[in-house]
């Protein structure tokens, strides 16, 4: 035992030369066999003879130490043959070689253990410090709902105290469950123990769902498991796409699943059922909902219709040139969804992803979303709606996506959802054999009609404002544009494929900013202005651009209005998009005719394109200012949007350069279909027996001061308002319209 202790000490305080200490002993010459040496001493003592006097030791020479260290790095465990070779080469005994390697290995092991102990001690100190910080945070936590400390006293881990705390928590849970049952209208048990009821068992009562995304009072959010294929474990709750949203009220995932399943069940039935649930119009064949039949067939599960609200419900079916899965992926991505419908959605975000689907598919994907829906008119308020979106694969070739409004209660959003709520709406997508998909779109909403100007009320009630026809028309036009873009036969002159894509991207940004300026989207943070000499039918807004390279720096003023035009949509669209007639209304043309340098088609039809316009030269001079213009027209409306751009910037874009730094402010026109009511006409110049007419929205965005810190003057507002009025009057004169239906 003594020998082992000495070996351990040697390992702890290793000196390479110590192993080389050799006895000046004729019998042992240079022995480092410490066990043998100690054994000889012990035998001598037992025989009564005095122990031999210990000889002096000396170290290995530097050459021997260097050779041993070099060999140890290559082979720390030499065999007998290798030890004999080292012994011969270094003039050492085999036992000396053996014991040197043993002690060297012991020393290495001890050093590693020492370093590991130091590291573990540091980690332990760090964990203790983090533990102290967490204890302090828990001790100082405040409940977001009641404002009292979340942990009233120091928590004791004694069994008796734990039992008392457990009993208190059970009482709080029972009270919370009773309150939840009051809103849900059914018994709410622990979702981890009992599966959620099917739609037929507990979904006919009124459900008001509230949502929360915060701190200590939301610790139960991650513990709720959901049945019926919803995968919430293993990190299925994905990061928020927009972390600025923080809803303070708790939400019950099983309740959201119940609402989603009920909404999906209703959507499928509404997509499949025909007469008497859906009534076709005599002239246009548009399908509208029979409200009486709907009430008999379905039971409301999101509450009664608010007093004073009007119902709009439409359905449309069409063939779209795309695969169903591609459309599913687009609709489940908030950014791509908004890009697909830029004139209908001014903003869209995903608040939370409750289920990302099964495996790599979108089947059973469930997410909380918020969006701003708009009609291109300042006389229709934006519909800001929070809803859940649920995707379900019903067969190999059939998908369905449904939206339904929920109430994300939050004091900061107390004024939201006062003008609209979205009942089960969405689409059923069926893959066909010809690389097309059959899309059945259902739109069902309830809204406060009193917030809409009387000029636009017939448009909304007919479904041309937010209805299924508009969604389908936009979807077909966008995918036709995509197919046209991929075709090699449509390349414009003097522009390659990369340049064409860059120019279309610039035009897309221009159209998006125009739409956001018309509808007062929260994206650009417009401030409304109330000026005494500006009519109520004109919306004037302002904002400051400080650092956005995509538009001029300074104060931007936006003005928009909508008027009734007693001419057809096709006539008005043809006039406004014709560059040869542009000098009759456009102040940028300076009264001179304009010509199209080239255009890139975005779909079938002559009017669906992006063009570059240039004014005719005067006295041989050439202008450096060009006009970028995008136009399109479909059954639900038309758009003409344009912006002045620098010629050098356009050349960079046409060569495939980055278009995000091209500064532009868009202006233009949106044309909405004219819809007549059953009663007397609200437009004084329209014959009640004809439906020829449309609604023209005119919008301008102008830089009134290049200094962002400057103050906006009344003269600037009056100038933009005069430009708006003058443009409408010029269009009226050019089309020989003697009286425009004014908005009173």
Walk me through what this model shows.
Helix content is 34%, strand content 21%. By secondary structure, the chain is of the alpha+beta class. Strands 1, 2, 3, 4, 5, 6, 7, 8, 9 and 10 form a 10-stranded antiparallel β-sheet that branches. Strands 11-12-13-19-18-17-16-15-14 form a 9-stranded antiparallel β-sheet, with helices on both faces. The longest helix has 46 residues, at 94-139. Residues 1-46, 182-186, 188-249, 410-417, 678-690 and 739-744 have low confidence and may be disordered. Keywords: Coiled coil, DNA-binding, Homeobox, Nucleus, Transcription, Transcription regulation. Residues 249-484 form the START domain. It is found in: Nucleus.
Q: Note the total helix count.
A: 17
State the fourth-level CATH superfamily of the largest domain: START domain
Largest sheet: 10 strands, antiparallel
| CATH fold naming of the largest domain | Alpha-D-Glucose-1,6-Bisphosphate, Chain A, domain 4
CATH architecture level-2 label of the largest domain: 2-Layer Sandwich
CATH class of the largest domain: Alpha Beta
- Shape verdict: extended
State the end-to-end distance: 109 Å
Number-wise, the strands total 19
User: What are the segments in which pLDDT stays under 50 over at least 5 consecutive residues?
Assistant: 1-46, 182-186, 188-249, 410-417, 678-690, 739-744
Q: What structural class do helix, strand and pairing data support?
A: alpha+beta
Beta-strand content: 15-25%
Rg (CA only): 40 Å
In percent, how helical is the residue content? 25-40%
Structural domain tally: 3
What is the averaged pLDDT score? 76
Pfam families: Homeodomain, PDF2_C, START
Keywords: Coiled coil, DNA-binding, Homeobox, Nucleus, Transcription, Transcription regulation
GO cellular component, one term: nucleus
Family: Belongs to the HD-ZIP homeobox family. Class IV subfamily.
């Amino acid at each position: 035992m003594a020998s082992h202790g000495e070996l351990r000490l040697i390992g702890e305080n290793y000196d390479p030369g110590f192993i080389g200490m050799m006895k000046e002993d004729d019998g042992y010459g240079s022995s480092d066999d410490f066990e043998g040496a100690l054994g000889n001493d012990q035998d001598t003592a037992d025989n009564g003879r005095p122990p031999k006097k210990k000889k002096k030791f000396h170290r290995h020479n530097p050459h021997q130490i260097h050779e041993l260290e070099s060999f140890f790095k290559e082979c720390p465990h030499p065999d007998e043959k290798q030890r004999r070779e080292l012994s011969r080469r270094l003039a050492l005994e085999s036992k000396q070689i053996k014991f040197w390697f043993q002690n060297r290995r012991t020393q290495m092991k001890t050093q590693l253990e020492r370093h590991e102990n130091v590291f573990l001690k540091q980690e332990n100190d760090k964990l203790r410090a983090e533990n102290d910080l967490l204890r302090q945070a828990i001790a100082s936590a405040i409940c977001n709902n009641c404002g009292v400390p979340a942990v009233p006293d120091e928590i004791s881990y004694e069994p008796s105290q734990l039992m008392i705390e457990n009993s208190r928590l059970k009482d709080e849970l029972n009270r919370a469950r009773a309150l939840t049952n009051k809103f849900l209208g059914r018994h709410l048990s622990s979702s981890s123990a009992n599966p959620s009821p099917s739609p037929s068992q507990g979904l006919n009562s009124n459900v008001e769902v509230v949502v929360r995304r915060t701190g200590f009072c939301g610790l139960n959010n991650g513990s709720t498991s959901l049945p019926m294929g919803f995968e919430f474990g293993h990190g299925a709750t994905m990061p928020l796409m927009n972390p600025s949203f923080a809803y303070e009220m708790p939400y019950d995932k099983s309740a959201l699943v119940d609402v989603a399943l009920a909404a999906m069940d209703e959507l499928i039935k509404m997509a499949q059922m025909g007469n008497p649930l859906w009534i076709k119009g005599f002239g246009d064949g548009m399908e509208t909902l029979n409200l009486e039949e709907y009430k008999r067939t379905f039971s409301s599960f999101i509450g009664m219709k608010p007093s004073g609200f009007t119902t709009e419900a439409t359905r449309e079916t069409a063939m779209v040139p795309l695969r169903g899965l591609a459309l599913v992926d687009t609709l489940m991505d908030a950014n791509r969804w908004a890009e697909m419908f830029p004139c209908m959605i001014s903003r869209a975000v995903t608040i939370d992803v409750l289920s990302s689907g099964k495996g790599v598919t979108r089947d059973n994907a469930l997410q909380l979303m918020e969006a701003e829906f708009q009609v291109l008119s300042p006389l229709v308020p934006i519909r800001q709606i929070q809803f859940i979106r649920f995707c379900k694969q019903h067969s190999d070739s059939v998908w369905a996506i449904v939206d339904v409004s929920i109430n994300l209660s939050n004091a900061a959003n107390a004024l939201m959802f006062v003008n609209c709520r979205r009942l089960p709406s969405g689409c059923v997508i069926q893959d066909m054999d010809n690389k097309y998909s059959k899309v059945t779109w259902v739109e069902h909403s309830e809204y406060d009609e009193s917030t809409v100007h009387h000029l636009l009320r017939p448009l909304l009630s007919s479904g041309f404002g937010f209805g299924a026809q508009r969604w389908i028309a936009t979807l077909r036009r966008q995918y036709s544009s995509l197919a046209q873009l991929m075709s090699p036969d449509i390349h414009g002159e003097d522009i390659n494929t990369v340049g064409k894509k860059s120019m279309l991207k610039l035009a897309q940004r221009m159209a998006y900013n125009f739409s956001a300026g018309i509808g007062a989207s929260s994206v650009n943070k417009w401030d409304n202005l109330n000026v005494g000499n500006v009519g109520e039918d004109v919306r004037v807004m302002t904002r400051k651009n400080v650092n956005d390279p995509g538009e001029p720096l300074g104060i931007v003023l936006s003005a928009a209005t909508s008027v009734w035009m007693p001419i057809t949509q096709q006539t008005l669209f043809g006039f406004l998009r014709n560059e040869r007639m542009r000098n009759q209304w456009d102040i940028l043309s300076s009264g001179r005719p304009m010509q199209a340098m080239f255009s890139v088609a975005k779909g079938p039809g002559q009017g669906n394109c992006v063009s570059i316009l240039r004014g005719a030269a005067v006295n041989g001079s050439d202008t450096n200012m060009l006009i970028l213009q995008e136009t399109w027209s479909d059954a639900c409306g038309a758009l003409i949007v344009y912006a002045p751009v620098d010629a050098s910037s356009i050349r960079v874009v046409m060569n495939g350069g980055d278009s995000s730094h091209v500064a532009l402010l868009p202006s233009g026109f949106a044309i909405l279909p004219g819809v007549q009511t059953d009663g007397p006409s609200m437009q004084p110049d329209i014959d009640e027996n004809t439906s020829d007419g449309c609604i023209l929205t005119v919008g301008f965005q102008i830089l009134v001061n290049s200094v962002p810190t400057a103050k906006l003057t009344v003269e600037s507002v009056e100038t933009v308002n005069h430009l708006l009025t003058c443009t409408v009057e010029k269009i009226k004169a050019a089309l020989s319209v003697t009286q425009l239906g004014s908005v009173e």
